[in-house]
Amino acid sequence: MKEIKQGCNLNDCFLCKHCLKDWVPAIGIHKKNFELKKGQQLFKEGNAVTGIYFVFLGKVKVHKRWDDEKELITRFAQPGDIIGHLGLGNDPVYPVSATAIEQSMVCYIALPFFESTLNVNPQLTYSLMKFFANELQESDKRMRNLVHMPVKERIALALLTLKKQFGINPEGSIAIELSRQDLSSFAAVSYETLFKVINEFLLNGFIEVTGKSFRLINEKALSAMALNI
């Protein structure tokens, strides 16, 4: 991970948008900016927490070990999003890992300064509390889906979720390039299962795939499938 001088604009990330305007210069003094190459890890599950990260450019996957050979992608972070906040509990280690899935830039705030920022910015603290609550609700839904949803429905839901979060590019594909391995980790299915289901979706005309880009052709069918639980 390479530290760079030119970084975030102190305007767009979760931290800067919710703190007092008079506090922004202090953030500018204390922040550090890092550049990550595609596939480079930001932090690893089990590492001691040193600070909080905010995405300025690119996309980062947040993932955790599923078993010795598999991982589960819990979310994708895009510009403006916070990463590393799950390590703020009483056990000061990151419970997840974070890895760039494309060339990215992040802003780093050391934990002592972040805690000071929370103490003097009640609106930021309140916004962070709501963010945690929303994330917990999404986590509960995800766990329910893992238990009750058949694999085909989980893959359909994963594709719909990605389109909702990232939108589409000018070509009409979901505006994030993902390997099939990452898609299977996000849908919580094996790679072999994903391969079979994606081929079935292609034959049925539900989607189109070009390299690592996915285009939803029959979103209505995918939505009906994902809701059929």
What this model shows, in words?
The chain is of the alpha+beta class and 229 residues long. Helices cover 41% and strands 23% of the residues. The chain has helices at residues 14-18, 24-30, 111-120, 122-148, 151-166, 180-187, 191-203, 219-227, and strands spanning 2-4, 32-36, 41-43, 51-57, 60-65, 71-77, 82-83, 97-100, 104-110, 207-210, 213-216. Strands 1-2-9-4-7 form a 5-stranded antiparallel β-sheet. Helix 5 crosses helix 6, helix 5 (151-166) packs across helix 8 and helix 6 (180-187) packs across helix 7 (191-203). The longest helix has 27 residues, at 122-148.
List keywords for this structure.
8 helices; elongated; 229 residues; 41% helix; 5-stranded antiparallel β-sheet; 11 strands; 4-stranded antiparallel β-sheet; 23% strand; alpha+beta
End-to-end C-alpha gap: 43 Å
Question: How many E-type strands?
Answer: 11
The low-confidence runs, each spanning 5 or more residues with pLDDT under 50, are: none
Quickly give the structural class: alpha+beta
Average pLDDT rating: 90
Can you list the strand order of the major beta sheet? Answer: 1-2-9-4-7
Output the number of helix runs: 8
Provide the helix percentage.
40-55%
Order of helices and strands: EHHEEEEEEEEHHHHHEEH
Shape: elongated
Largest sheet: 5 strands, antiparallel
| Rounded Rg | 19 Å
Q: Report the sheet-strand fraction.
A: 15-25%
